[in-house]
Amino acid sequence: MSENLETFDYVIVGGGTAGSILTNRLSAKGASVCLLEAGAEDRNPFIHIPAGYIKNIYSKKLTWNFKSKPTEHTANRSFILPQGRVLGGSSSINGLNYVRGQPDDYNTWAQMGNKGWSYDAVLPYFKRSERRIGPGDDTVRGRDGEMPITDLDLVHPLCEAFIEGAKELKHFGFNLIDIQRL
Ligand SMILES: Cc1cc2nc3c(=O)[nH]c(=O)nc-3n(C[C@H](O)[C@H](O)[C@H](O)COP(=O)(O)OP(=O)(O)OC[C@H]3O[C@@H](n4cnc5c(N)ncnc54)[C@H](O)[C@@H]3O)c2cc1C
Q1: Which numbered atom of ligand 1 lies nearest the CA of 86?
Q2: Does 132 contact ligand 1 (Cβ within 6 A)?
Q3: 99 in ligand 1 pocket by Cβ < 6 Å?
Q4: Which of 91, 93, 147, 149 is the pocket-test mutation for ligand 1 (most atoms within 8 Å of CB)?
Q5: Which of 2, 9, 67, 135 is 20 to 30 Å from 99 at the Cα level?
Q6: What's the pTM?
Q7: Largest CA distance in the chain
Q8: What element of type H or E holds 149?
Q9: Who's near 10: CB < 8 A, 6+ residues apart?
Q10: Ligand 1 and 42: CB distance under 6 A
Q11: How does DSSP classify residue 38?
Q12: pLDDT value for 48
């Protein structure tokens, strides 16, 4: 073994969403971490513009260029299957929408025998990664995490009308009060 070979407490393969968070948390605790990322640095300006993902998902440099196979069920068409290949991974090319599952989603998983996946069990992890800015119910919101979360700056009247309409029709299979609480 070479004397110059650097050693690390941890080697993390993939500097995407999970890998970057893990690297940050481990190194904050004083561990040395080697993060290996197949893609380049996240310098492309469209990564840092909220709607930039519309361009980035087609980027040959920022994605793995995966495509689905044409099948008879897709009228023999092939679709892009964007996956980020850049520091930040898919979170560098994603839509920046913060969406959690419904409590029932997790509770159903737990009921199916998946220990540790109930809503109460996963909620602390959601809260831990979240830095909620603005009003919010702190029983379900995090204030000190790495990921800043805000409400939409622009609320289109059509979206509001759609939700009101769905409430009247009781069209969704879940309680809209739960959605607002999330
Ligand atoms: C177009 C798009 C829009 C999305 N929109 C949203 C959204 O609005 N809201 C939301 O919550 N989620 C969204 N998502 C989903 C979310 O971004 C992903 O679920 C999340 O980023 C996955 O994190 P990950 O750490 O599992 O993988 P990734 O973030 O994809 O990280 C994997 C990393 O590993 C690297 N890698 C892979 N193989 C190797 C290797 N052999 N050696 C070195 N590095 C390697 C990759 O290059 C990549 O950087 C979207 C995803 C896409 C693709």
Answers
A1: 49
A2: no
A3: yes
A4: 91
A5: 67
A6: 0.85
A7: 71
A8: strand 147-149
A9: 26, 31, 32, 33, 34
A10: no
A11: S
A12: 93
Of 47, 126, 123, 124, the closest CA to residue 90 belongs to 47
Read off the pLDDT of residues 68-124 as tens digits, 9 standing for 90 and up. 999 999 999 999 999 999 999 999 999 999 999 999 999 999 999 999 999 999 999
pLDDT digits (tens, 9 = 90+) for 109-119: 999 999 999 99
Is the CB of 14 inside a 6 Å radius of any atom of ligand 1? yes
Q: Whose CA is nearest to atom 19 of ligand 1?
A: 90
Q: Print burial letters for 143-180: b (CB count within 10 Å at least 16), e (below 16).
A: eebeeebeeeeeeeeeeeeeeeeeeeeeeeeeeeeeee
Tokens 């939409």, residue located: 152
d(CA 169, CA 134) in angstroms, rounded, equals: 31
Question: Six-digit token pair at 108?
Answer: 């159903």
Report residue 102 as tokens: 């419904």
**169 vs 5: CA distance, rounded Å:** 65
> Residue 129 in contact with residue 21, Cβ under 8 Å?
yes
Task: Return all residues near 12 (Cβ < 8 A) that are at least 6 apart.
Answer: 19, 22, 23, 33, 34, 35, 36
Residue ranges covered by each domain of the chain: 8-37, 40-97, 103-182
What number does CATH give the domain 103-182?
1.10.1220.110
